[in-house]
User: Which sequence fits this backbone?
């Protein structure tokens, strides 16, 4: 059992894309997974509702939780599911801070072309604070929407830049996700890229990321 947080203070980086795809891979693997949406926009819950409406199997349970009671609720929910994935975002979000305090690992999607040193530093500090009471917390950056054009070299350049800056509590995961239409199209139907099936490269890279997160 694990509580995995997909979070970050910056908007639109791919948190919900990651959370929903990882939840689907777990469910396809036979795990009883809970998608916990602490984002008031409710995008993960919406994805789950679309999936439910379309009667896609396996079903994926999703709940929305906000506010002070969150840490206790997460710990209680974690006893009832094989796996919990939290989709938490937003600047200065109380939910993101609480979730960092109770999760086993946090993954922060970042887009190379939007690499924002201030937000990453902020996340590094939030993780540092959370480690004060969640000492085993691990936190990683996942590069998302990387250009598929190898000449752009976004992946390598972002890693070099990141290393120069030197963050104490964050590292960049080796597997990355590229900019692919499959992520948008599959989500519209309440599906993961694996279930949408039309883009093998998207499925493969998401599976590699999954392996790193759950079996790495
Ligand atoms: N690798 C990708 N390739 C193409 N489109 C992507 C990719 N990742 C995410 N997107 C698209 O970018 C948009 C934002 O992604 P998503 O909703 O996952 O971000 P988020 O961090 O959850 O945003 P918010 O902060 O609003 O909750 C969505 O339309 C999504 O389909
Ligand atoms: Mg979201």
Assistant:
């Amino acid at each position: 059992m694990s509580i995995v947080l997909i979070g970050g203070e910056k908007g639109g980086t791919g948190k919900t894309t990651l959370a929903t795809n990882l939840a689907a891979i777990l469910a396809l693997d036979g795990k009883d997974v809970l998608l916990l949406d602490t984002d008031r926009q409710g995008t993960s819950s919406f994805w789950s509702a679309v999936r439910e409406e379309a009667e896609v199997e396996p079903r994926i349970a999703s709940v929305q939780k906000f506010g002070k009671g969150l840490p206790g609720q997460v710990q209680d929910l974690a006893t009832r599911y094989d796996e919990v994935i939290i989709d938490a975002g937003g600047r200065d979000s109380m939910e993101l801070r609480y979730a960092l305090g109770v999760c086993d690992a946090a993954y922060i999607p970042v887009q190379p072309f939007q690499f924002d040193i201030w937000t990453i530093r902020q996340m590094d500090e939030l993780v540092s604070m959370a480690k004060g009471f969640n000492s085993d917390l691990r936190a990683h950056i996942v590069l998302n929407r990387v250009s598929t054009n190898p000449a752009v070299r976004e992946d390598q350049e972002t890693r070099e830049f990141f290393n120069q800056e030197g963050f104490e509590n964050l590292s960049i995961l080796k597997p990355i996700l590229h900019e692919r239409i499959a992520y948008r199209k599959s989500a519209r139907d309440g599906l993961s890229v694996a279930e949408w099936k039309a883009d093998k490269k998207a499925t493969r890279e998401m599976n590699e990321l999954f392996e790193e997160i759950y079996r790495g």
In short: The beta strands are 2-8, 33-37, 61-64, 83-89, 105-110, 138-143, 171-172. The chain has one domain: 2-211. The longest strand covers residues 2-8. The domain at 2-211 is CATH 3.40.50.300 (Rossmann fold).
